[in-house]
Amino acid sequence: MPDSGGSRSQRAHIPTSGTGPGTDADLRTGPGADGDLKAGPGADGDPTVPHGDAGALAVDPAAPQVTAPAGLPEAPVLTEAPGRPGGPGLSGPAAKAARRTGLLVTLVLGGLTALPPLSMDMYLPALPAVTDSLSAPAATIQLTLTACLAGMALGQLVVGPMSDRWGRRKPLLLGMVVYVLATAICALAPTAELLIGFRLLQGLAGAAGIVIARAVVRDLYDGVEMARFFSTLMLISGVAPIIAPLIGGQVLRVTDWRGIFVVLTGVGIALTLVVWKWLHETLTPADRHTGGVTDALRTMRGLLADRVFTGYMIAGGLAFAVLFAYISASPFVVQEIYGASPQTFSLLFGLNSIGLIAVGQINGKLLVGRFSLDKVLGFGLAVIVLAAVALLLMTTGVFGDAGLVPVAAGLFVLMSAMGLAMPNTNAQALMRTKHAAGSASALLGTSSFLIGAIASPLVGIAGEDTAVPMAVVQVVCAVAAVACFLLLCRPWQRAGREAGGL
Question: Average model confidence (pLDDT) for the chain?
Answer without folding.
Answer: 75
